[in-house]
Amino acid sequence: MNKYGTYFVFFAAMLWATDAPFRIHLTQALSSNFIVLGEHTVDMLFALPLLIYGFSELRKLEWKEWGAVLLVGVGGSALAGVAFTEAFHYVNPSVAILLQKIQPLIAISLASALLKEKLGGRFWLWASLALAGAYLISFPSGIPQSYTGEVWSPNTIGVLLSLLAAVLWGASTVFGKYVLNKRSFTVMTSLRFVVGFVFLLFLNWFTGSFPKAGTLTDTDILFIIIIALVSGVISLFIYYRGLSVTKASIATLAELGYPMAAVAINWLFIPGSALLPMQLAGAGGA
User: Fold this and answer.
1) 158: Cβ contacts below 8 Å, ≥ 6 apart
2) CA gap 161, 167 in Å, rounded
3) pTM
4) Which range marks the domain in which residue 40 is found?
5) How many domains does the chain have?
6) Which residues lie below 8 Å from residue 262, measured CB to CB, with a gap of 6+?
7) What angle do CA 257, 42, 88 make, to 5 degrees?
């Protein structure tokens, strides 16, 4: 394994942290489904030419690899993005991002089961501490609010959406690594965007999530392009380049550069995103 691969993954993860200030603006007027579709539309402009160029490699994919690609594209690229964006409606963006720190638990467990990567002797100890930290981040009062009458509390909905994104992204690390064991990072990245785009197109059509004519502003378009380029195309090509020479269990730890950078960026650029003392304690534990 190439030691520099870890640095590529870490740098890519820090780039993901730049999108929250733009994303929270977009959620004020646009549906989460459409925001993520908009990102993938821009991503497609870069993905399709690379996919056409790598068509000969594409033909070599086995059915198990296609299954992994579908899981990454639909789960990690489309649904995880929608769940994460939707969580911004319910919880502090920094909370939604910090809960992504449980991704290593998902990825390392799956890497052990599917890729036969060995678990360290202290894995379960650190896993327990991470889960306890995630609990404090989610419920700083120490008591979960599950129901308010017949309706789920906003905090619980936001936490569950964030955790769903973490599970899908953590699994995507492992399934993406499975494909990268034989295929190039350019083909894997391009397939992720293309599969995600096709799924999101049908999802928006089925749910009626397209905005009404004239409601999409120039600022909205600019912010979608910024998110798509910086935390999408650029970061993911860097990420899969690093992942191609790094164990999934190591890469998922390097991805913690994402919540680390995001808390600082959100604190600077998003009013009201500061964390409570108990949440900071939980972030340290996680």
Assistant:
1) 87, 88, 89, 90, 91, 95, 96
2) 10
3) 0.84
4) 4-285
5) 1
6) 16, 17, 20, 93, 94, 97, 98
7) 50
Using an 8 Å Cβ cutoff, are 97 and 258 in contact?
A: yes
Q: What is the pLDDT of residues 127-184, one digit of tens each?
A: 566 556 555 555 555 555 554 554 567 888 888 899 899 899 989 988 999 999 999 9
Report whether 96 contacts 283 (CB < 8 A): no
Number of Cα atoms under 13 Å in the Cβ half of residue 110: 21
148: burial class by Cβ within 10 Å (0-12, 13-18, 19+)? exposed
Q: Which residue type is seen at 48?
A: L
